[in-house]
Amino acid sequence: MRKEDLEAIRQDISSMLRRYSVPKLNLPKEEFIALKNLRNKPELTIIRADKGKATLVMDTSDYNSKIQKFLSDVSTYKKVKNDPTSSTLKTTCDLIKKHSEKLNLDVKWIIPTCAKSPKLYGLPKIHKPNAPLRPIVSQIDSPTYRLAQHLAKILSPLRGHTRAHIKDSYHFVSEIKDRHLSDNETMVSFDVQSLFTCLPVEDCISIVTRKLEENNMPVEYAVFLRHCLTSGYLLWKEEFYKQLDGVAMGSPVSPIVADIFMEDFEEKALLTSPINPRFYKQYVDDTFTILPLDKVTAFLDYLNSINSKIQFTMQLEANNSLAFIDVEHEGSVIVNTWLPSHHHVKQVLHDNKLRVPRLRHSERVEPATVARVPAVLPYIRGVTDKIGYILNRASIKTYFKPLKKFGQFLPSVKCNVPLQDAGVYKLDCEFGLSYIGQTKRSIKTRVKEHIADVKNHAPGSLQSVNTYRIAPVTTSDLIYHKSSLKNIDSFQG
To answer: How far apart are CA 51 and CA 62, in angstroms?
Structure first.
């Protein structure tokens, strides 16, 4: 786009903004006060549900005890004394550099500049008795996060090639709709218990290695996968735990590995099964089958006999319906009643037969010769919709997002470790002097470097900034802007 066009857009938007002010929060005062009060109640934990759009208020003690129940499994987790972040980051960087040339890797993107500890939290499964938690390990900005993202793209084509695989809700609906049940048949759903934490890592690596070889892909990716799966750890309540087996739900590569393993597992299971299900479809850890009524228990026992770590539970249909993307049968014909709430827009399109015309229309439209990055703006009525109109005139697509989401008013259930973030920091020294710095790496790492430079009288260190003698950094004077200028009293250099 020409500079003159950009300047014209800037002037139009600037002129429009001068005539508008940001509206007040679209939330009744009473509700806003109630949310603030909830934030200030440490005895309560507010968290979204595992599925759907529900939000739960739990006793914090109940939430913590359910999390602790996971961590008490000594076959899966082991408490460690020190933070593994630095050592894991170094190993990750060394491994990427070693194989970067052969795999043609974008090292600058894959190697993290500021690594944080993965943090454990849980999402309640409100569709199950007693609402057990699904453990999630937030891997964002962890030492292996970007490498796992890259692996997910590479390994994704290795899945989805079995007859039982379900791609999405549309695929399942097309497969199941209008199928008939005989009088002696029933719909059954089989679900793997805690699939991610029970996945046998060595088996997963072996299966992926074999598939890489079969598809003439570099086996070095299996080396990366081994590192991502075996270097797992997490932070909970200021304590670190090493994950001994299984994969973390929260890593970008974990769902891919789970898919590949389960497809291999179920393909072999069906080949040797003494019972042949008339219909069998699998979506990650959930399986939908049509079986003879008198063979259901025997088939469950067979599945559970294959691998001691992969254990299934089953759910039989009730009132002619089954909670697997909600299916039911009317007489002998199976129909789909509704899709989960988070797919409601797709459901409307599908039910109104709009999906195929939309796809056909897209085939007729000539793509733009120059792809332009769309603008994503917080929606403010009367403001951003006008900005969108201005941008659309310049062929720039505009997408809107909520100005404030409900979750932004609630406290995070993840552990906060501000010193692991990048940002602006302030170090107070003698004689009322201060040093303010900015870093893209961990603030903790940068401050350690300052302390070492001061001790070693390194050129350019804090002591040489002024002609006055500046004392070594004191730990209680570290201030981090993202944590509301909160003093950090316990930093150890």
So the answer is: 20
CB 141 within 8 A of CB 115: yes
Is the separation of the CB atoms in 233 and 80 below 8 Å?
yes
Q: What token pair was written down for 305?
A: 């006999």
The CA-to-CA distance between both ends of the chain, in Å, stands at 50
Using left for φ > 0, alpha for ψ between -120 and 50, and beta otherwise, residue 213 falls in alpha
The burial class, CB within 10 Å (0-12 / 13-18 / 19+), for 344 is exposed
- Please give the chain's pLDDT, 493 residues, in tens: 788 888 888 888 888 888 777 667 667 788 778 877 877 888 888 888 887 678 888 899 999 999 999 899 998 999 999 999 989 999 999 999 999 888 988 888 888 877 889 999 999 988 777 888 889 999 988 999 999 999 999 999 999 888 888 887 778 888 887 778 888 889 899 989 889 989 999 999 999 999 999 999 999 999 999 999 999 999 998 899 999 989 988 999 999 999 999 999 999 999 999 999 999 988 877 888 999 999 999 999 999 999 999 999 998 887 777 766 545 445 445 555 444 433 343 444 444 444 444 444 444 444 444 556 788 888 777 788 888 888 888 888 888 887 666 666 666 777 666 666 777 777 777 667 777 888 777 777 777 777 777 777 666 655 444 433 334 444 434 444 443 333 333 333 3
If phi > 0 it is left, if psi is from -120 to 50 it is alpha, else beta; for residue 80 that is beta
d(CA 217, CA 154): 9
CA dist 247 and 239 (Å) reads 19
Residue 416 has φ and ψ, to the nearest 5°, of -105, 120
* Three-state SS at 479: strand
| E strand spans, 23-94 | 44-48, 55-59, 77-80
pTM: 0.71
Record the tokens describing residue 413, joined without a space: 């259930």
Beta strands 239-243 and 233-236 are: antiparallel
d(CA 274, CA 76): 33
Best CA proximity match to 443, nearest among 92, 87, 91, 113 = 113
Distance of CA 465 to the CA centre of its chain: 43
Residue type at 137 in one-letter notation:
V
Half-sphere exposure of 438 (CA within 13 A, CB side): 0
Contact predicate 137/76, CB 8 Å = no
Residue 191 is encoded by which pair of tokens?
Answer: 């679900």
Amino acid occupying residue 151: L
CA 311 – CA 14 distance, rounded (Å): 61
Structure-token pair, residue 378 = 């917080």
Which tokens hold the place of 298? 């025997």
